[in-house]
Amino acid sequence: MVSLPSYVEWAATAPDLKVILTVRDKSKWAQSWLSVIPAAFLPYQKPFCWVKSIKELAAFNWEIMINVPTNNNPDKYDDIATLEAGFEAWTEFVRKTVPQEKLLEFDVRQGWKPLCEFLGEQVPDGPFPHINDRVVVDTIVKVFVAVTWIWPFIFALPLVVVYFFVRTYSRRRTVKDRNKQA
C-alpha cells in the first residue's frame, strides 16, 4: 500500500501537476473532524467489510482518516490537541514537499478567483459551492454507522414477512377447517 505522503512526494515531482492545500483554522478543523472520525472505522465493520472495493481501500482510508490527522498517533484519534498538531504537521509537510510554484494554499472563503487563477481556468458565474455543511456530514456519517447496527435486520426482514404471511395463511386455513367441521 502506498502511503499518503508518497502521493504528495509524487505530486511534487510530477510534471504539469498542481497541488491544492486547503487551509483553515486548526481548532475549527479538529472540532469538525471529530464528527467524521466514525467513518474511519466503517471499512472494518459489517456489512462494509464484505464489499470488495471498500476492503481494498481500507488501509488507504485508515491512512487519510487516522494516521495523517493524528501524525501517526492513532490511539489519540479523538484528542483535540493531537488533531491540531497533526493538522499543522500535515500542512508543513505539504509546504516543504511541494515547490511553491506548484502549490496553492487555498481557503474556501476566498471563493473561485484564486482557485481558477491557479488552475488557469475562467471564474464561473455561479457562487462557490458550500456543500461541506456540518449537519449534512454528521447525518451522512450517522446513517452509515446506523447501517453497521441494522444490517442484520435487512436480511431478517424478508424472513419475518414470509413468517407473517405463512402464519396468517395457516390460521385462516385452520379457521376454515374448523368452520367446515362444525
In short:
With 182 residues, this protein is mainly α. It is built from seven helices and two strands.
End-to-end distance, in Å?
75 Å
Q: In one word, what is the shape?
A: elongated
The ordered string of helix (H) and strand (E) elements is HEHHHHEHH
Which runs of at least 5 residues are low in confidence (pLDDT < 50)? none
**In percent terms, what proportion of residues is strand?**
under 5%
Largest sheet: 2 strands, parallel
Architecture overview:
The model has no long low-confidence stretch (mean pLDDT 85). The protein contains seven helices and two strands. It has a two-stranded parallel ribbon. It is mainly alpha-helical. The N and C termini lie far apart (75 Å). Helix 2 packs across helix 5. The radius of gyration is 26 Å and the shape is elongated. The relative contact order is 0.13.
List the helices and strands and how they pair.
Blueprint lengths: L3 H10 L5 E4 L3 H11 L1 H4 L10 H16 L12 H18 L5 E4 L5 H8 L14 H48 L1
Parallel strand pairs: 1-2
Helix pairs in contact: 2-5
Tags for this model:
single chain; elongated; 182 residues; two-stranded parallel sheet
